[in-house]
Write a structure and sequence with these properties.
Layout: H1 26-29, H2 36-41, E1 46-50, E2 59-63, E3 66-72, E4 78-82, E5 96-97, E6 102-103, E7 110-111, E8 117-119, H3 129-132, E9 137-138, E10 140-143, E11 146-149, E12 171-181, H4 185-190, H5 196-200, E13 219-225, E14 228-237, E15 240-249, E16 253-256, E17 274-282, E18 285-295, H6 316-321, H7 325-330, H8 348-365, E19 385-390, H9 397-418
Antiparallel strand pairs: 1-11, 2-3, 3-4, 4-9, 5-6, 6-7, 7-8, 10-11, 12-18, 13-14, 14-15, 15-16, 15-19, 16-17, 17-18
Bound molecules: FE2/S2 (inorganic) cluster and fe (ii) ion.
């Protein structure tokens, strides 16, 4: 869709000339069936719930604009299927989880997890309806405590993708947390490429959760990797240089190192504390879900609580005084309007992310095969970590900034060289 950019307003008290709200960028924002971005997303396995949420009842959800139920039958199979029964549309969230599959509560039709209809109790014994008809189902599996589903064309189903961070020596990993935000997926994902906000939003008085060392001004940089891109923020404290590297892996994964400890306490490399998928539920609702990681034996503070400012549970006035990520991102509008933005120097990562996603969308539109890399036994290399180096400052402030950037890039290159090429 063509949109008109809002005027670059130069007039004082000029809001009158700035009232029209252009359309969002539909190519990147819309995810329903048949939309360009929706079809792109459907080429990738997506996590939908934590496996231990699947108890004796089905879970009703909405993924990429489609209403679904997710359940685990009594034989342990995981099902992901259309919400509405193919008979007369009753919602299978009221279905009866069975020894095999799920049974609709209305007239008792029984569906296996692949969509086959196993019983149509009210029909004559010689009815062949159940042999001719299938209910809509998607492939689903449990991987280390997360349920993933594949919603794309059946003949394009890729192997389940595995990252090297899923089995790190000396680390433990669990699924969770999972939380929903009422806004478009892209603005949430953009935040993971927006290192600049760490220095402002997360240092507002009263804000909690991060080490104060994050308030030290950083040098930012971005580099492409074999699996996506990284942002690097590098900062100095005396003779110590702290390099933080976060992965973005298209279309919607990011990994970032822990940010709670002060620089002095970082005596070894930290691998990413989280692998997070930003899953579009629909155009204006988004789920954050993923794995959470700590060193072996460490506690999991984020298991049930996503952290300060990551939801709307605090009183409104308190959120106004000390806003968090939730407040900043959800209120960019239900779908942030790019034609109203004025991107600045700190938004390079945001632009890179948008370009990457747009390239992927267009590849799928052009008929190319687009899918994740890495499989069990041969995982995809990733690059997020942090490290503290002992490097005295350069002679001048400018030279030191240049030095910090160089150290950050060297660190990424080192990891790229050490890891398998794809
Ligand atoms: S509506 Fe589901 S069995 Fe009739
Ligand atoms: Fe943040």
């Amino acid at each position: 869709m063509t949109t008109t950019r809002a005027p670059f307003l130069t007039q004082k008290f000029g809001a009158y000339h700035h009232r029209e709200v252009p359309q969002p960028d539909d190519e990147l924002a819309r995810v329903g069936p048949g939309t360009p971005c929706g079809e792109y997303f459907r080429r990738f396995w997506q996590p939908v719930v934590m496996t231990d949420e699947l108890k004796d009842l089905p879970i009703r959800t909405r993924i990429l604009g489609e209403d679904l139920i997710i359940f685990k039958d009594k034989s342990g199979q995981i099902g992901a299927m259309e919400l509405h029964c193919p008979h007369r549309g009753t919602s299978l969230e009221f279905g009866i989880v069975s020894d095999r599959g799920i049974r609709c509560c209305y007239h008792g039709w029984l569906f296996d997890v692949d969509g086959r209809i196993m019983e149509t109790p009210g029909e004559p014994a010689d009815s062949t309806l159940k042999d001719r008809l299938c209910h809509g189902a998607y492939p689903a599996l449990d991987y280390q405590g997360l349920v993933f589903i594949y919603m794309g064309p059946p003949d394009k189903k890729p192997p389940f993708p595995v990252l090297d961070t899923y089995g790190l020596d000396g680390y433990q990993m669990i699924a969770g947390p999972r939380y929903n935000w009422p806004c478009n997926w892209l603005q949430v994902k953009e935040n993971s490429m927006d290192a600049a906000h760490l220095l402002y939003l997360h240092t507002l008085p009263g804000s909690i959760g991060f080490t104060e060392d994050l308030t030290i001004p950083a040098e930012w940089d971005y580099m492409d990797t074999p699996v996506g891109t990284v942002y690097i923020d590098t900062r100095r404290k005396g003779d110590k240089v702290w390099i933080r590297i976060a992965d973005f892996i298209p279309p919607n994964i990011h990994q970032f190192p822990p940010n709670l400890l002060p620089i002095e306490q970082r005596t070894e490399i930290n691998h990413p504390m989280a692998t997070t998928w930003t899953v579009p539920l629909d155009d204006t609702n988004t789920m954050q879900i993923g794995f959470h990681r700590t060193k072996a034996g460490g506690p999991f503070p984020m298991r049930t609580n996503p952290g300060f400012g990551q939801d709307d549970s605090r009183p409104y006035e308190e959120r106004q005084r000390v806003p968090g990520d939730y407040d900043a991102q959800v209120n960019q509008r239900p779908i942030a309007v790019h034609d109203l933005e004025h991107l600045a120097s700190t938004d390079r990562g945001v632009t890179m992310l948008r370009n990457m996603v747009r390239r992927g969308i267009r590849l799928v539109q052009d008929g190319a095969d687009v899918h994740s890399v890495g499989v069990e036994g041969d995982p995809a290399p990733t690059y997020s970590h942090d490290i503290v180096l002992d490097v005295p400052p350069a002679a001048t402030e400018d030279a030191d900034q240049e030095l910090l950037r160089e150290l950050g890039r060297q660190q990424v290159n080192k990891w790229i060289d050490q890891r398998p090429r794809l």
